[in-house]
Specification:
- Chains A, B: Belongs to the acyl-CoA dehydrogenase family.
- Two copies of one chain form a homodimer.
- Among the domains of chain A are: 159-282, Butyryl-CoA Dehydrogenase, subunit A, domain 2 (Beta Barrel), CATH 2.40.110.20; 431-567.
- In chain A, helix 9 (283-319) packs antiparallel against helix 13 (414-421) and helix 12 (374-402) packs antiparallel against helix 14 (431-444).
- Chain A contains 20 helices and eleven strands.
- By secondary structure, the first copy, chain A, is α+β, with helices and mostly antiparallel strands.
Chain lengths: 571, 571
């Protein structure tokens, strides 16, 4: 049974308007949007997601996508939901103004990303890939491609995919073999096989635009020889509508552990007609635009899947009665059992940390041009992607645990989140790819300057907390201060290692350390914001408990990981 | 595809003969078995498991058990495998001599438990439940029941089940409603519904003996009113062979996340004929014998599933080539990538820790009567069950990660271990049940005396390590010493809390702390044993790296958890 989905509107209202000590949306958009506008958009998206997308989550898992006679079909309801999604304007909302979209700021898009994924992660992947391709084409495509393809993606009429992986080229894109050969008419003939193509074929929209990484004749070996091509499923006719079928076919779809409602395709290109995007040899740079967007999107997906699992566990625990609960009146639900309460708080406090960091990352991108926050934004992309997706796997496991034996029964529905979540630390670059990007390009290369910028920002929050007369604020300040010290010593160890195996052997622990610390910072900000109120209501009190719990149960991991990082590679 | 299974014979040879500084099997059995005998038994079991059980693991998952016309069927090959298992004497080997079995010591049975589960966990559950019932009947059953039922279980002709759970009585056994009413002929009429009955029906043996917890007329409320009954699927005829069908039917089987090859049944008893085991009202005590055996068995299952997942990940990483590996010659496999190497060592070092603690637990039970090690054995049962099963979930997730995108594809086979593993922290008592047993009955009640016995034993190993001139030994000693200090402070905090919500709110973190510490101790013992050799060969060197890795990556968790425990319940 699909569980109900309750959009986290009040959390977003708090994050947009209060948590960062100001109206973050107004600041990030120069007044174009306010926290209230943003919250209204989130509430509207939440209503749509809860009523249209969430009810399809279970059938997506049980029936899943299937391939018949070369065409992928989604379960009943998916095509209608996609059309409703388009008509409600949610695809256009995501797109930048330069591409003809509404140009919503990153802070709001973080919330939308969570909501689409929380209500139906398999469905959301279709949107996520289109959104990524919109950003990539907007950055590099010719006017002709913009008119023919980008406009259709922005309107939502067509959907987009991202074609990187091949059987022998996964993490190592330099090994890509798909070839693109120039033709006399300016188009290219694309031949090769691509695997793991998310929403690579489907029947929810009349055309699909594949963005394909391929090698050109006489190109240099490795990643520098790669170029980017738009390859449509159906070639547009003179009116720009889907015409002749292009020479790209769906060889098979994968039988996966989870996200069954998202078709994962093997695509065969046999001299398919493609069009160059950007410069020859500029493929990887073009793809990175899409990947950065998709990686941040994974952070929002992690938050969404985690929150859905948490909501279901919390609802079950509030209903289920079993045994006598220590120090509670007879008939208390299992949510009051000390260890069930621990699991629920553990989940909830991590969801809040991920959610807040997602909004903050969106804000950093919003202010990159005006406030120079671009470096910190780039710094947080691999952290959010790596840390939130790894934690989401652990968190969905906790959601099963709350259900006891019922958690292992598929009909309960909670196991789906655990199965779905497991792909997140893998796709869009494994956690190791994220951590290598983080330490190699964003820590060691600049001598830890951006990391230090982060630590300094957290210290400002510590100073604010020190000025408050409250026990949780004092504990949070103490814990953050000690965590910063551990993070600094880990960073120093990493800088001492330099670009060596000692550094890369502990890059994932270092990434997890920074993610955990950043999560603690988000809670520290929440504590300060809540204590700025004249009096604390129940919601405020819950935020204090959540922050205190995170500080006692999750933040101490920073010290553990600092010890691991200091040891370097164990050889 | 089912992966090959390589029985961990050399590890067991090391654990039996060397790791504990003496021939542990000889000591534990008063010379009845030696380390060499034990290793030979393990090697034989391993050969059987690899050739007969492991190849059925995949079909067990893909086809699974199915219910047709009231009868559960296992996939082709299961019945033949079970018969071969019986004929090779492996059921009888497990049983105590008092019940007509071979009476193998606990240290060896730990290894057998791992091997059956590592090769085919779904199959092994059939054996595990029979073994548990054998112990329960041996402890409490009348001569008549021994002759009619126990003998058939020990020979392996019939299999056994454990019937506790009901829809409204899971963790809270006191809520059991199944009724047993005495009849004139000395038998009892058993009526009620039991759920989650592992191997509750099947077609691999001609009869099934259900051990049922039920309430008798006028019995006191709660757990004290429960008695234990033997209820056969077929009533034995005059010759003791399966005769008339008893009034117990399989209402349904569950569609589960994993262990599909193990039928999980809903059983309906409608005035079924049963026979009392032990005293009226002595049900829970009788069931605890079986549960203790089953809980230790879960530790061995965690080790088995973990090792199988590790083996498959290691084999994949040794074959798969992808990209240039830092500081390694071209063409190096991904196993050499720093982070893949980290994942593999992380898995391997945990598997060794679990395996060693399993053997040690078996040894403690072996010496309980002679050396008074019973309290420590009882102390370790919830620790091994809770810690090893929780770690196994994380470990099988790592095994997926090593496979990258292929890990998410069901055909790869690694996802099965991740799905199978998820039930382990739930059944035979959730981790919270284990941790409440640990802190409530085995730490707080005796003022931490057994915990202190453990810390003292680890200190002796630290002293041995201090006397060795070796860098790994020195680091291991330092790390263990600091870990003991953290464990002592956590224990002191717990004793300070007493039987309050502050204690029960951190009971799982405390259990995980002790499990992690015990694992570090096992590695410390291994370091000492290896350095006692005149020269270290490659296997010795690998043990040192494994211990050093555990010390750098896993043992620091003790400090993190000590901070969590000290905070008590966050309210």
């Amino acid at each position: 049974m699909a569980s109900d989905y309750i959009p986290p509107v009040s959390d977003y209202a708090f994050l947009f308007g209060e948590a960062f000590g100001l109206d973050l949306v107004t600041r990030g958009t120069g007044g174009a949007f306010s926290a209230e506008d943003a919250t209204e958009i989130i509430a509207g998206a939440g209503e749509f997601a809860a009523s249209v997308l969430a009810p399809l989550e279970t059938v997506g898992d049980r029936v899943g996508a299937r391939l018949e006679d070369g065409q992928v079909h989604l379960p009943d309801g998916f095509a209608e939901a996609y059309q409703a999604f388009v008509e409600a304007g949610w695809v256009t909302a995501e797109a930048p103004e330069s591409a003809g979209g509404d140009g919503l700021p990153g802070s709001i898009r973080a919330g939308l990303g969570e909501i689409w994924n929380g209500s139906n992660a398999a469905f959301a992947l279709c949107w996520l890939l289109s959104a990524g391709q919109i950003h990539a084409l907007d950055a590099a495509a010719s006017d002709e491609i913009r008119e023919t393809y980008l406009s259709k993606l922005v309107s939502g009429e067509w959907t987009g995919t991202m074609n990187l992986t091949e059987p022998e080229a996964g993490t190592d894109l330099g090994a890509i073999r798909t070839m693109a050969t120039p033709r006399d008419d300016g188009s290219w003939g694309v031949s090769g096989q691509k695997i793991f193509i998310t929403w690579g074929d489907h029947d929810v929209a009349p055309n699909i635009v594949h963005l394909v990484l391929a090698r050109t004749p006489d190109a240099p070996a490795g990643a520098k020889g790669l170029s980017l091509f738009v390859v449509p499923k159906f070639l547009p006719d003179a009116a720009g509508e889907p015409g002749e079928r292009n020479a790209v076919t769906t060889a098979s779809i994968e039988h996966k552990l989870g996200i069954h409602g998202s078709p994962t395709c093997v695509l065969a290109y046999e001299d398919a007609t493609g069009y160059l995007v950007g410069e020859v040899g500029g493929g990887l740079a073009g793809m990175f635009v899409m990947m950065n967007s998709a990686r941040a999107g994974m952070g929002f997906q992690a938050t969404g899947i985690s929150d859905r699992a948490y909501q279901q566990a919390a609802a079950y625990a509030a209903e289920r009665r079993q045994g006598v609960v220590l120090d509670r009146a007879p008939g208390a639900p299992i949510a009051e059992h000390p260890d069930v309460r621990r699991l629920l708080l553990s989940m909830q406090s991590r969801v809040f940390a991920m959610r807040a960091l997602g909004v903050y990352l969106g804000d950093l991108f919003d202010r990159a041009d005006t406030d120079g926050t671009g470096a910190l934004a780039e710094f947080f992309v691999p952290i959010l992607k790596g840390w939130a997706t790894e934690d989401a796997v652990a968190l969905t496991s906790d959601a099963i645990q709350v259900h006891g034996g019922m958690g292992f029964i598929e009909e309960t529905g909670i196991a789906q989140h655990y199965r779905d979540a497991r792909i997140m630390p893998i796709y869009e670059g494994t956690t190791a790819i994220q951590s290598n990007d983080l330490i190699g390009r964003k820590v060691i290369r600049n001598g830890g300057a951006t990391a230090e910028e982060l630590f300094g920002a957290i210290e400002q929050t510590v100073a604010v907390l020190r000025g408050l007369d409250d026990a949780v604020a004092a504990r949070t300040a103490d814990r953050l201060e000690r965590a910063i010290a551990s993070a600094r010593s880990a960073t120093a160890a990493l800088l001492g290692f330099g670009q060596t195996r000692d550094a890369y052997g502990v890059s994932v622990p270092y990434l997890m350390l920074l993610g955990t610390l950043a999560g603690g910072w988000m809670h520290g900000l929440a504590v300060a914001a809540v204590l700025a109120h004249d009096a604390q209501d129940a919601a405020d009190a819950a935020r204090l408990v959540s922050a205190d719990f995170y500080g006692a149960h999750h933040l101490p991991r920073v010290h553990m990981l600092a010890e691991t990082v200091a040891a370097g590679e164990v050889a």
